What we know:
By secondary structure, the protein is mostly beta strands. Among the domains are: 1-153, Lipopolysaccharide (LPS) transport protein A like domain (lipopolysaccharide transport protein A fold, Sandwich); 319-431, no CATH class. It is built from one helix and 31 strands. The chain has a 31-stranded antiparallel sheet that branches. The chain is rod-shaped, with a radius of gyration of 36 Å. The N and C termini lie far apart (152 Å). 32% of the residues are buried.
Amino acid sequence: xxxxxxxxxxxxxxxxxxxxxxxxxxxxxxxxxxxxxxxxxxxxxxxxxxxxxxxxxxxxxxxxxxxxxxxxxxxxxxxxxxxxxxxxxxxxxxxxxxxxxxxxxxxxxxxxxxxxxxxxxxxxxxxxxxxxxxxxxxxxxxxxxxxxxxxxxxxxxxxxxxxxxxxxxxxxxxxxxxxxxxxxxxxxxxxxxxxxxxxxxxxxxxxxxxxxxxxxxxxxxxxxxxxxxxxxxxxxxxxxxxxxxxxxxxxxxxxxxxxxxxxxxxxxxxxxxxxxxxxxxxxxxxxxxxxxxxxxxxxxxxxxxxxxxxxxxxxxxxxxxxxxxxxxxxxxxxxxxxxxxxxxxxxxxxxxxxxxxxxxxxxxxxxxxxxxxxxxxxxxxxxxxxxxxxxxxxxxxxxxxxxxxxxxxxxxxxxxxxxxxxxxxxxxxxxxxxxxxxxxxxxxxxxxxx
Length: 450
């Protein structure tokens, strides 16, 4: 009789059809009560109900179940409170499972509010939220077509995609978060996103798994975690997600982009980084004509142009291509021991430039990218220091023009250059040492004896 009375009172809305997969209003049905049942009349025709000692309930005609140490129904406002004292409140809905210390279900709005030690699991994706509170809006036909959730107090989310197959999740932390459906999320306030191969920071973020898109704003920063890590900053950073598990394949900085690698640095208005197998493979940089030009910098070399393309197979700098008013400098440290000596700087210019690197171990045996070839095309020009191994007088100075200038470097120095297509230029060789002065008497010779 007690269960029947509660069922009759809790049924605030008429039962829907037996289709439970698309959501239906929750009509509370009490399955069992441990003890301590009580009724309180508020006004004629309106009562509040209280039960304790362990209560099991369900949403009538569905697979949604609820359990708590004690419950209370406030019929006038359509509110069902659940409290966990010895055991947490446990709710298993068609979309999520949830544990918390307390929870309140508002029947008319199909809204659940949970507080303290909240653990919510998305049953479709496996994503897990842990935090101090959660507000859950059920997807119910005629009320809302998509579930929504809100949480504050800096919750932690282990975020899976629907097709991740149990792979590694992204761990997302923010001051406040919002979810819509199984694949859309927003976060605000000190947002962090972490995985074994990736880390990101920003003031706010948006994530859409179905569209394969995410964005970070508010001093955003992205880091690739590997043996040769990279970083990217900008005004706005967008992420492209593809494949099973929604791995990051594209990282874009829009506005004031700065990308850095183990032995290179790239600056431009817009930078795109392409990632495959969780490693950086290519970088592209460009910007509007009136903005700062794209610029690539390695230890001793710089390249500037309207646009740049860097090949970085498995995060190793291999080749750079520059287009539009391309200009490159190569610095050669002075062989003199005097630290104040001015380094020798060769430069190359053309409509386009191609620079190629190879891996050379440094003094510690660590592979480093070393520039070994530069090719300028279209109105090509160069100014180089050409050193001779057999001449100790110093390098020659060479200025050349042509359609194509192809220079090979040895060590940090220009070794030889080939100029083709209307080649012309100037070569300045070092002045040879002055011959010995034979006009002066040799005072070191002994005078002959008479």
